[in-house]
Amino acid sequence: MKLEKDHDPRLNAAWISRYLDDRTPLEKITRETEQFFTAIKKDFALSEHARRKMTFTERLWSFFAEPFSIEDEHNFGTKVEGNQAVPEWKDRLDAEYRKLGATIQRRVNVRDYGAVGDGETDCTEAFKKAFGAGAVEVKVPAGVFVVEGLRLPSWTRLVGAGKGRTVLKLHPKASRKTRLLTNRNYVSGNRNIAVEKLTLDWNVERLGDIEMTSAGGNYSSCLTYAHVTYGWVIDVDALNPGLHCFDITASLYNYAGDGLRGKRGSRFVWLDGVTGSGFGDDGLTTHHSDYIFVSNSHFSDPSGRAHKRGFSNSNGFEVDDGSRHVWLSDNSSTRCFGGIEIKAHANSSAASGVHISGHLSVHDNRSFNFRHIGHHKKEDPESRSAFNIRAQRLVSIEPIETPLYEGSTPRSLVVSGYRNVAINRFLFVGNPDYDYKRQPAAAIQYRAACVLLANGVVRDFTTAGADLSIAGGEQSARNVRVQNLVSLASAEQAVTVGRGSELVQLEDIRKRSSHLW
């Protein structure tokens, strides 16, 4: 299978069901996953004495930080609407969208303020006049509208004529720091903002052959929501940003250390049908924000130019530093470093409370990569925040090596340092003619704990060392359960368990030599 840049992500649910060949109702799968998570979950006691001494830089960042708590204050669960798993709080978001419509006092066309979609005229002032103080719906007709960067006030709905028809393009003289589209006030925050049915072109070509396309921090992206409560991004395409296609974040990225997170995060944001390519770092990312829902979306072919060549951690979907309670449903990725990466840097709290229901990863280097950098080795402090991932209906097709990150071994799944991880109903497919160099197709490693994999098939990793490796040694995994796993015409070893790994339970592991069931 090959996915193109223009892949329609609203087909993802059907493709995932076809690959899994599983007619179990989604409601039943979802409750089953919750039961697995409850069975594996453990409350870890984290000693205050285990906290690493703060560096001078982390002390400075701590003035802009607040304590990181793992638990969901609202205890929101997952429900099934039609054929899709969604967060229970989506009802609240739907009510706020209706409130946005009722609050709008003006419905205008940006052409009436002087905008010309000829791909040359600077239309920035026309958009500013159209937005005014908010409480407005601004329609943008077909055409290419050049802007120097737009800032949306609260209670604003920006609507185009469709992806590829309405294009907002960054001005040739815009600085490398420019965010093409963002909200107006990062300090006091904004609320009830919707962007729909258009394409965002960051126009990276204007920078020429510059080595690094991003300016650091949360600059240089196509769309940035920072300190936004109740936001929507629906059917929007993003092209060639210096950093991210879409960034749902706090006012500042925060590096005050594990156990703290940035203040003024975004809350209750839904991105549906968003797509992107050519991104310098990640397609979609979240930082220090809560209650984010991403559905029916697709990212492919990053440039990786926000990083040094060959060291580009460019993911299709990244749930990053300090993020909590994020739902990902029926998305897809291709030719990225990671399809979905749930992580944090060493000097920040890890993302926690992540729910995945349906993802199609094709030719990513690491389809599903869950890790807290700097908290893996024996001498590292144990992560205070890397907890609680529920995932179901995962499909990984032929992970491969990538020039984005040289030397990174292709894998369908890696779990490092995270605890309380339940993965249910999955298919990992290798290429029988590809040289996987005796590396495992999937790995539970580096002090991961309380991990359960159930009801999965791994096939065609014929040159891999194992379909699943559970690490031993000084960075051993512990309390790992694997049940109902089928190894089909795949690696010589279905599961390998390293010496020193603790409390590993294997149940109903079956090897089959052909695709005949």
From TrEMBL:
User: InterPro entries recorded for this chain?
Assistant: Pectin_lyas_fold, Pectin_lyase_fold/virulence, RHGA/B-epi-like_pectate_lyase
- SUPFAM superfamilies reported in the protein's UniProt record: Pectin lyase-like
Q: Which residues form the Rhamnogalacturonase A/B/Epimerase-like pectate lyase domain?
A: 108-340
Keywords from the named record: Hydrolase
Q: Which Gene3D superfamilies match?
A: Single-stranded right-handed beta-helix, Pectin lyase-like
Source domain of life is Bacteria
Q: Give one Pfam family.
A: Pect-lyase_RHGA_epim
Key word Hydrolase present: yes
Identify the species of origin: Planococcus wigleyi
One of the entry's Gene Ontology molecular-function terms is: hydrolase activity
Name of protein: Glycoside hydrolase family 55 protein
